[in-house]
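Appendix C reproduces, verbatim, an entry submitted by the partner laboratory led by Prof. M.T., so that reviewers can inspect both the input and the predicted structure.
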Amino acid sequence: MKTFFKGGRDIFKNYYFIILAALALILPDVMLKRLVYPGSFTESYVPVAAGFFTLGWVCLILFFCVFVLPKRWGRIIFLVLSVFFTVFSFSEYIYYKIFEQFFWLKSIALAGEGADYLDYVTKMIDASLLVCTLFAFVFMILAAACWKRPAMQMRVRCLLVIVPVLILSVVHICMQPEFHHDGMDQWDTWRKPRPVYENFNDVNRSFEVTGLYQFVYLNAYTAIFPHEQYSEEDYAKVDAFFDEKGKMPVNDYTGLFEGKNVIAVMMESMDTWTIDKKTTPTLYHMMYNGINFSNYNAPLFGVGFTFSSEFAFNTGYFTPLSANSAAHFSRNEFPYALANLFKEAGYATNSFHFNDAGFYNRGIMHKAFGYEKYNALSDFGLAGVEAELDSNILKNEALYQKMTEKEPFFNFVITYSAHLPYTDDSAKLQLAKQYRPDLINRSIHQEKNNVQILAADTDAFFKQLLQRLEADGLLDNTVIVAYTDHFAYGVSDEQMLSMWKGNKLSYRVPAFIYAKGMKPKRVTKPMMTVDWAPTLVNLFGLKRDGGYLGSDVLDPENKGFAYFENWSWLDSKMYYNPSDETVEETEYIQNQNQRVKDSMETNNIVVLGDYYKKHKKK
């Protein structure tokens, strides 16, 4: 017995650093799993599979670094990998706290956007995140300090590496859906663990099934070897989808605004509760004296919700769930994007925004949409914090002249004032308060008041726009289209945000079309971002032979429909969330679920498969 304990002590003395190294690698995985626990799957094997994936990768990394590589290189590779996974998990944790979803590995390139709002991001750091991260680094450093390369025959070393490879291979094989008769063509494949693993396009559920390390591996593998390779059979499905939808119907609104100038404004973070008679009187007037889309919904597809929303508005398609950002489709052809159609109809097309042309690759992407030029405010000398406030845009004469120098014109403007952060240390907010000290109200929730002040600055832009157009004799011949990119998710208190929205669906945000002297109309049917393109095509009498995911919301035959990234949907009868187990899945619900599935598949083939370049030209 004494010999046994002595042997055990010697083994621990020689290999205890491996335990420390293993803890350093396991903690980031544990840190993220606590966010999604208990998860969206009821199958008991899901956490087991994810656990074995993590076990296999941790063992593979350690065995390779300890027993195969030389001591120096083994320690270096271990440190690089452990630092990467800890930092990556830290970022994923914060991103999930903000958006309730993880991001794809290839979206790391977009991290710079979050770096601009560190004050808001730091509020997402909680005690569990700090503790897990701190201990991960402590274990990592201790393991590196005690690193050894035990004496062992090469044959044994190789066998040690083979063990985790076998573990990973066996779990991967067991997760293949065809071995368990999990059909891949059913509407609810998104909530079955094995099809989710096979498809690997639902970021949250994919993480639940794989755990951190297999998630990163599959991210990297699918980026290098994309599995979304589409065939003529897939393109034929898109043809069938559009054939079933039929041609865009002619109705009382067809060509109503034909030939008129258009200024489309995507309002950053303007929410339902930010528009009222006192704070935003111009927006309130335009909304209730134009076409008010009171049930407009902006789903949060993709990464980078602002750009995903402008992508959907311009093209009539969402960013696919499996894509890191819509900004990576600049090589696609979008012949039926709004700017391309307006340009084909003889319009001057330009887009305007605070950020430079490289942000979200807008300079190239907007050309793909059909805009002659993406105009950053800095191109006109607007810089610094003044450029962040919308009330300064039209004070720049050169910029206004660029917008109106040639008729007819189609301008796409993205506002910025209401963008987060909403804390008092924001220089933009402080300047907005200087502009409107009368709106400072310390008797209400501070963050709500801050958002209202920023919203008022966006309202000032619309007031100036109407005044300038009226003075130049352009207002009578100009239509203003306005919609919000996403709800004000930058508000740190989710419960307060829900209360301010009146417990309405969080996706629901303001949208309207305004033309001077038009008869007010309120559209209450559900609408989503991809409905804009077919709706505007009909209103302005543009080329009508393109296929769109959405439908003309003003067509009386269209009863309204919107669906969201979590597979929930909204129609004129009900809101359905498939995670709500209290709702019985009737035949009606199943048919609508199938409708969502068909739409998502069509969307993926068109965007990921570059349908209009690779198929329609043939």
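The longest strand covers residues 261-267. Additional entries are available on request from the coordinating office.
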